[in-house]
From TrEMBL:
GO cellular component terms, A-Z: cytosol
Tree of life domain: Bacteria
Protein's UniProt name: DUF77 domain containing protein
Residue ranges constituting the Thiamine-binding protein domain according to the UniProt record: 3-92
InterPro entries assigned: MTH1187/YkoF-like, Thiamine_BP, UPF0045_domain
Pfam family membership, one: Thiamine_BP
Taxonomic path: Bacteria, Bacillati, Actinomycetota, Actinomycetes, Kitasatosporales
Residues of the signal peptide: none
Length: 97
């Protein structure tokens, strides 16, 4: 499964990069395949391991912010691996045609 999620601290002002970095650090330390862009972090793995990482990422931000917003989108497709790369490669292949 691939989960794209965004953790946003609320009540800490406009500059939230240092808080978001705490969540991304948890993802990177998980060892699971992942990508971070300007809006979301995507992570790939089995249901329990991915959801555990999301939960820990939220908890890392909760330690420093009075309120946290979580947006999550999941692609649940058993048997598919390396979806983070293969989905993008498919789109790039079509663009190159």
């Amino acid at each position: 499964m691939i989960v794209a999620f965004s953790v946003t601290p609320l009540g800490v002002g406009e500059d939230v990069g240092e808080y978001v970095a705490e969540a991304v650090r948890v993802v990177r330390e998980s060892g699971l395949p992942h990508r971070t862009d300007a809006m979301f972090t995507s992570i790939e793995g089995e249901w329990d391991e991915v959801m555990d990482v999301v939960k820990r990422a939220v908890a890392a931000v909760e330690q420093r912010a009075p309120r946290v917003s979580l947006v999550l989108k999941a692609d649940i497709r058993p048997g598919v691996t390396d979806g983070l790369t293969s989905k993008v490669e498919t789109v790039e292949r079509h663009l190159a045609e």
